[in-house]
Design a protein that fits this description.
Blueprint: H1 3-26, E1 30-32, H2 45-59, E2 67-69, E3 93-94, E4 100-102, H3 105-108, E5 138-140, H4 158-161, E6 171-174, E7 193-194, H5 200-204, E8 208-216
Parallel strand pairs: 5-8
Antiparallel strand pairs: 1-8, 2-8, 3-4, 5-6, 6-7
Amino acid sequence: MNRKVIGIMASCALLGFGAAAQAQQSSMSFFVTSTGIGKGADLGGLEGADKFCQALATAVGAGGKTWRAYLSTQATGSVPAVNAKDRIGKGPWQNAKGVVVAKDVAELHGNNNLNKQTALTEKGEIANGRGDTPNQHDMLTGSQPDGTAFPPGDDKTCGNWTKSGDEGSAIVGHHDRTGTAPPPFDVSWNSSHPTKGCSNPALAAPGGAGKMYCFAAN
């Protein structure tokens, strides 16, 4: 077999692999953002967070779906609260490798399959967790364990995702299901502990980078 034939076969194999990877990502319906927006917990509100999810999904060929950030907001004045669990569709949701993390909303907030090995980024990569450098296992959610918003009062959402300074706080979950918070919060994927501020340094201190979960709502 001459070198030209071998080269053609290798090229075809690479093209086939690339097509398979692209097909997997196009069927993806859940991911952890590979990066934060860069402005601490100021995500531009729910709208800005959703646009970020959509942009990351589009960049890997999965932009044909409607993407939503798994975030809650607290009621303010006449504006009602928004529950994260009500924004993300009905499921099932699968990662970039085709592994199902939850078949529906009930399973997502119950006995789900979400952990460090399955909570992959939009690129299909494992996200840094506890024990990695840097640790970035904190995922912004602003949510209670059942996926609902916190009542008005103490800030749990960094001003409904508009703050990026030392004031305010946001509830985060651990995508790797491990941490130092008292049980069962240490293993909570969506409601582990509050941050001590909303800036990039404040989010980074306990192990975060302003990342979040994104779900396809359709």
